[in-house]
Amino acid sequence: MSDPQSAMDALIALMARLRDPERGCPWDLEQSFATIAPYTIEEAYEVADAIERGDPGRLRDELGDLLFQVVFHSRMAEERGWFGFADVAASIHAKLVRRHPHVFAGATIAAEDLGREWEAQKARERAAAAERGDEQGTLAGIPQGLPALSRAAKLGRRAARVGFDWPDAAGVRAKIDEELGELDAARTNDEAAGELGDLLFAVVNLSRHLGIDPEAALRGTNARFEGRFRSMEQLAAGRGRALESLSAAEWDELWRAAKLNGG
User: Fold this and answer.
1) What is the CATH number of domain 4-98?
2) SS3 breakdown of the chain: % helix, strand, coil, rounded to 5?
3) Which of 115, 119, 117 is nearest to 105 (CA)?
4) 84 within 8 A of 78, measured Cβ to Cβ
5) Which candidate, 116, 201, 194, places its Cα nearest to that of 154?
6) Contact at 8 Å (CB) between 101 and 114?
7) How many CB atoms lie within 10 A of CB 263?
């Protein structure tokens, strides 16, 4: 394996070369935080995809792509005199030490209390940020750029910590029925969009009460749907049928067959 420090130094030097005003790459020089941000999000998803596929080689490559995004953003910040990559690394190092007092400060915390202590430390950090004049409030600091499903889950968890929550899953389930009724009663597309959003938010809250990650649950459903649909395509092709010519009954029969085939 490569020496971590020398490999990191080489990557940082490469980034500086790409952003060199006179000798750099025109595309890299044109980029800004805003234009690079979508690539950063995309690379994070590609890391998750490599993990789900169980592909070590692809995971290595995708982690490299994601690391390059951090180096890219750090370089642009350094050019503005804000901070450099070393400051980014030092910041996360200090944060992790601060959030692990049971490892680095001799504190005794029971295993079952670690999650609660982690959240308590994050709450203290948010309070300190509020004193500095940063964004304040219970919902402060939840990134706008998160996928809507993940952000809804974070909003629900954060609100629940201060008591704004249903007492149990049954209460959320009743809310879902209520939202379905309001969706059925919507008279315009705008009203329907609002009610559908409320319904999705309620479903995310139900997943929280059931201890299920909604993003992971939906990814699993997406994967199953893809597998079953491909199976239906193969079954139809084996019968010499075009998908567009299938009747509703034939689609249903193929879907059932795909499920029986393990899709």
Assistant:
1) 1.10.287.1080
2) 75, 0, 25
3) 117
4) yes
5) 201
6) no
7) 17
Q: 172: buried, middle or exposed (CB in 10 Å: 19+, 13-18, 0-12)? A: buried
> Cβ-count burial of 247 within 10 angstroms (0-12 exposed, 13-18 middle, 19+ buried)?
exposed
203: which residues sit within 8 A by CB, 6+ positions away?
Answer: 176, 214
Instruction: List the structure tokens of 158.
Output: 């954060």
d(CA 124, CA 141): 13
End-to-end CA distance of the chain: 40
- Of 232, 233, 221, give the one whose Cα is nearest residue 259: 232
User: Looking at domain 137-212, which CATH architecture does it have?
Assistant: Orthogonal Bundle (1.10)
- pLDDT digit string (tens) for 168-186? 999 999 999 999 999 999 9
Token output for 23: 């000798």
Backbone angles phi, psi at 80, to 5 degrees: -90, 0
Neighbours of 202 (CB within 10 A): 22
Phi, psi of 202 (to 5 degrees): -65, -40
Tokens at 25, concatenated: 């790459």
Please give the Cα distance from 245 to 234 (Å, whole number): 15
pLDDT tens for 137-179 read 788 878 888 889 989 999 999 999 889 999 999 999 999 999 9
Q: Could you give the residue range(s) of every CATH 1.10.287.1080 domain in the chain?
A: 4-98, 137-212
State whether residue 146 is helix, strand or coil.
coil
What pLDDT, in 10s, does the model give residues 220-248? 899 899 999 999 999 999 999 988 999 99
